[in-house]
């Protein structure tokens, strides 16, 4: 394995981009295993569906990453509560919204320079360094992608295909 090269800031930005890419890929591999007709199912009335999680993540991305360095990450036009109501969007409309969120994130990340890392941005009027804001979003999306994988695995049942190394089959006890 070759050692990564570059300045610490460049390495950080490249790794942050990789973490976001991995989260998106993991979510999309999980979604691909569940028929769209089941994406609105919830484990109980207080839990989220796959649709809810997609709307929330994309809504958060559009709010946080649009004008990332110059405006508060909680945009006034965002209706966060509506993200949890599962509107009757078509598969195409939902995936377009999902794509817009990721596009906003990747556009912002790809435009950052090392000198931006020490700047301050606001999220809900609270100051964060750019590094803190990025780390906050990596953790936030990882939480929700984990929920999506868990729910997708439940909904896919025995048809679930492991995304990483599958577990070893249980060993037999006795004769």
How would you describe the overall organization of this protein?
It is a single chain. The protein is mostly helical and about 180 residues long. It has one domain: dinb family like domain (Four Helix Bundle (Hemerythrin (Met), subunit A)). The chain contains four helices and two strands, in the order αααββα. It has helices at about 10-30, 50-65, 90-110, 130-155; strands at about 120-125, 125-130. Strands 1-2 form a two-stranded antiparallel ribbon. A hairpin with a 2-residue loop joins strand 1 and strand 2 (about 125-130). The longest helix has 27 residues, at about 130-155. The protein is globular and about 65 Å long.
Q: How many helix segments?
A: 4
Task: Average the pLDDT over all residues and give the rounded result.
Answer: 92
Helical coverage, percent range: 40-55%
What is the helix/strand order? HHHEEH
Shape: globular
The radius of gyration is 19 Å
Structural class: mainly alpha
Low-confidence stretches: none
Strand fraction equals under 5%
* Number of strand elements: 2
The CATH class name reads Mainly Alpha
What is the third-level CATH name, the topology? Four Helix Bundle (Hemerythrin (Met), subunit A)
The name of the CATH superfamily reads dinb family like domain
CATH architecture: Up-down Bundle
Give the tally of structural domains: 1
**Main sheet?**
2 strands, antiparallel
Spatial strand sequence of the major β-sheet: 1-2
End-to-end span in angstroms? 45 Å
């Amino acid at each position: 394995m070759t050692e990564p090269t570059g300045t610490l800031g460049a390495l950080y930005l490249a790794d942050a981009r990789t973490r976001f890419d991995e989260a998106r890929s993991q979510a999309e591999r999980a979604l691909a295993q569940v028929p769209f007709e089941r994406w609105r199912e919830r484990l109980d009335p207080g839990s989220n569906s796959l649709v809810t999680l997609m709307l929330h993540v994309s809504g958060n991305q559009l709010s946080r990453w649009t004008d990332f360095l110059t405006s508060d990450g909680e945009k006034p036009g965002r209706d966060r509560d509506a993200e949890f109501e599962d509107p009757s969007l078509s598969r195409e409309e939902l995936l377009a919204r999902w794509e817009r969120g990721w596009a906003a994130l990747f556009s912002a990340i790809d435009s950052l320079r090392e000198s931006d890392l020490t700047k301050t941005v606001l999220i809900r009027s609270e100051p964060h360094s750019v590094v803190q804001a990025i780390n906050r979003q990596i953790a936030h999306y990882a939480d929700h992608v984990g929920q999506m994988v868990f729910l997708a695995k439940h909904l896919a049942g025995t048809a679930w295909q492991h995304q990483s190394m599958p577990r070893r089959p249980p060993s037999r006890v006795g004769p």
